[in-house]
């Protein structure tokens, strides 16, 4: 019998205080976060600029938390070595940003990181299906990448269902606009890794919100 992979909650540090990143990471782990989701934007692949490998490197000694790096960059190949050296645990790239996903996945794995392949809302699921048995995670974007605080796109759940039907054990992550009103829909569709930025950081109790997100997601699994 196959079992759905474990539910994981991944606060996006994009909604945290960048001046206190180490503290924000430690706080999220102490509140029960499974992953620390780090949004890497280059101002080219997406119209926003955030952080790169030097920040991951500075952060690494301050937390044992799982550093889940979501690279929204042109030429992701260029950064594999730097992120590996910096101590990233997972390297996520966009399928739209590379002409050779398979070689990139191999390179990420050879650098001892988990590989995650990501697709934007307008990209058909068929773009990632040939690589699903070669990666550790597929990330289905539920907003247009570039900014936190956008609205969840429920029509992306069809992609999640398609991937889950073919890959019962794969980690399927959703990212963008996830909150307590829609996480059940995403979990029911087959997602098991949930990125949440604004809904966690802007809540009165981020700890209670993480627990509630987990409870709601787990309520849809059997
Ligand atoms: O990758 C991205 C945006 O491009 C995300 O990780 C967001 O940062 C999630 O933030 P919310 O939509 O949950 O506020
Ligand atoms: Fe992200």
UniProtKB/TrEMBL annotation:
Keywords: Carbohydrate metabolism, Cobalt, Isomerase, Manganese, Metal-binding, Zinc
Active site: 39, 175
Residues reported to bind substrate: 12, 70, 146-149, 177, 197-198
Top EC class for this record: isomerase
EC number: 5.1.3.1
Chain segments annotated as transmembrane: none
Gene Ontology molecular function: D-ribulose-phosphate 3-epimerase activity; metal ion binding
A single GO BP: carbohydrate metabolic process
Keyword Transmembrane appears in the UniProt entry: no
Cofactor note: Binds 1 divalent metal cation per subunit.
Source domain of life: Eukaryota
Known pathway: Carbohydrate degradation; pentose phosphate pathway; D-xylulose 5-phosphate from D-ribulose 5-phosphate (non-oxidative stage): step 1/1
Pfam families assigned to the protein according to its UniProt record, in alphabetical order: Ribul_P_3_epim
Cofactor(s) the protein needs: Mn(2+); Co(2+); Fe(2+); Zn(2+)
Keyword Isomerase (UniProt): yes
UniProt xrefs under InterPro entries: Aldolase_TIM, Ribul_P_3_epim, Ribul_P_3_epim-like, RibuloseP-bd_barrel
Binding site for a divalent metal cation: 37, 39, 70, 175
Cross-referenced HAMAP family: RPE
Family to which the UniProt record says this protein belongs: Belongs to the ribulose-phosphate 3-epimerase family.
The protein's name in its UniProt record: Ribulose-phosphate 3-epimerase
